[in-house]
Amino acid sequence: MPRPAPSLIPPFSRPKSRVAIRQSLSYQSDIAALLFETLREFDLPVQGKTVLLKPNFVGSDPLGMTNTHPAVIAAARESFLRLGASAVLVGEGPALERDTQLVIETVSLREYLGPLSRIFVDLNVDDVERVALQTRASRLKELFLPKTLLGADFLVSMPKMKTHHWAGVTLSLKNMFGVVPGSCYGWPKNALHWAGIDRAILDINAAVLPDFAIVDGIVGMEGNGPIQGVRKPSGVLVLGNDPVAVDATCARIMGLLPEKIDYLARAATLLGHINPAQIEQVGESISTVRTPFAVLDAFKHLRSKS
Amino acid sequence: MRSAFVESSFLPFLLGAQNEDGGWGFHAGAVSRAEPTAWALIALIECASRPAHEEAAARAARFLGAAQLPDGSWPSAPDLKEGCWATSLVSLALLGSDDSSASAKRGLDWLCQELPGEARPFQRFLRLIRPKRKIASQNPSYFGWSWTVGTASWVEPTSYAILFLRVAPPQWLSADAQRRLRMGETMLFDRMCPSGGWNCGNPMVYGVPGEPQVAPTVWALLALREHPERPEIHESINWLESNTQSIQSPASLALALLAMNAYERPIAGLAERLQTSYEKIETPWSVPEAAWAALALTDTQHWWKRKSEGEDR
């Protein structure tokens, strides 16, 4: 049965969201134990379900600042299996590189996950299904989306913590651009840009909102992201049951104001919380892990004073 | 002449992966779509050695004929009602198929009428009145072809369109079509990365040079093969040649082999590496990638040559 469309709920009638910040300074640390313990606290409905992890893979990444690190993906996969998921798939549709196998080799995914034939799904070339959009923020009226995505019971967005030269930041909501298949929209998925990036982010997430988000902020990217920026170690993993709240929390860690990030402000009207009073914060506090990220001049207005 | 591996592996794979409707999906068992069917058809026509190959090619041509939209274009997925980049590839494939030239001509007409977003009058007007923001290095007045209708020009769809226009019968090309072809070539040269090679079409963003990628470089090189003397071509072939050693995926190896053979710069051991990479591959084979590999391991390359260049297509 295909995933039901997410409920669009204004903030005043939406329950509080929960976000966990965990410190992890290196990909060599025991991320699996950290994630498992944290995920267990969320009591997620994954027993017997198919979980789809959606990382952010872009391409060549010798400094480890562009792609979601495979150690985090492997740890998340192991954790969801331990929590009773019947299957945990990894699916991505890289935006700029049509040869997904090349990206997988670059990312060294196999070294962390083992044989990929039954685990990895190239969302760019999956069979597709037409999805009418619930919102009309952008010029898009419908999207053709991968059947594997629509068939997953539990969707986890797993972005890298990065700045973005068009959208300000790219986190769990922007990461959903990667589910839009290149085989329908090209490489890059330029139709989303022409529809208006910020508005398209809202429309996509209002069609397939992740059930959970895990942001890899152990090493991120600042400046001219998402590809040509500068390596930024932040030493955090940010997890939560509301991707909007997770992204707002990440923005605060990055020293940015979530309410000034266009797509986050829009998402806060229907998809989740950005108001800290509505976010139950567990783990580290934002102030102890705050690591201001450099932004391009066009996004200086996003910087918080504190 | 072709590698025995084409005969023993790629052609049986393509035959086995063909759907009942005559088309191919991106993988065996997937729903038939225009682009993988076009690549499979090109490979079958180039490599056909048995009646079964010719029969499969005829069924593919029938599938593509039925999938053509009323405006002459082809959509990227069955339920989409708008044309896309696949129109160039399907038209190219149908040129090699008997009785399908009328469909290919309609595809050509659509391609020549379809302007990318930045070349449309409203966008040109906006560029005139908007304050200049110099984010990217390219000249926005040069345009080629887009992936989908109404979006910007990019390297790969422009290369696919030029490949087709270069092979189409010259009498099909109106003066406008010839202008589009030349403009597309100009756009490709303008979008080359500073050190040679191409990526999707961003040679420089915010002053930072873009990294070339194998696939866009190969398609641009094949599209620009009428200009072997240009220094940009030499730089790009040199970039590709110096990077083949580090390529770890079958698809990019196949494409690199195609381009190096097309420019008569063979690399020792590249064909063997491609074959070995396919013997080791653990994920399901991709139809377009298998078609590229079959083409790369075949000496004749009629599919990107006009009939007058020598042999029959």
Task: Describe what you observe in this structure.
The complex is a heterodimer of chains A (306) and B (313). With 306 residues, chain A is of the alpha/beta class. Chain A has one domain: Rossmann fold (3-Layer(aba) Sandwich). Chain A is 27% helix and 24% strand. Chain A is built from eleven helices and twelve strands. In chain A, helix 1 crosses helix 2 (70-82). The longest helix of chain A has 13 residues, at 70-82. Chain B is mostly helical and 313 residues long. Chain B contains 13 helices and two strands. Chain B has a two-stranded antiparallel ribbon. Chain B is globular. The two termini of chain B are 15 Å apart. The interface between A and B is large, with 35 and 45 residues.
Observed structural traits:
heterodimer, A: 306 residues, alpha/beta, Rossmann fold, two-stranded antiparallel ribbon, 11 helices, 12 strands, 27% helix, globular, B: 313 residues, mainly alpha, 13 helices, 52% helix
Distance between the termini of chain A: 47 Å
Report Rg of chain B: 19 Å
Structural class determined from secondary elements of chain A: alpha/beta
Mean of residue pLDDT values of chain A: 96
The biggest beta sheet of chain A is recorded as: 10 strands, mixed
Total strand count of chain A, please? 12
Give the largest chain-chain interface (CB within 8 Å).
A-B, 35 and 45 residues
What is the helical fraction of chain A, as a range of percent?
25-40%
Number of helices of chain A: 11
Spatial order of the strands forming the largest sheet of chain B:
1-2
Coarse shape of chain B: globular
Question: Poorly predicted ranges of chain A (pLDDT <50, ≥5 residues)?
Answer: none
- Named at the architecture level, the CATH assignment of chain A is 3-Layer(aba) Sandwich
The whole-angstrom Rg of chain A is 17 Å
**CATH level-3 fold name of chain A:** Rossmann fold
Please state the oligomeric state of the protein chains shown. Answer: heterodimer
Q: How helical, in percent, are the residues of chain B?
A: 40-55%
Order of helices and strands of chain B: HHHHHHHHEEHHHHH
As a percent range, the share of strand residues of chain A is: 15-25%
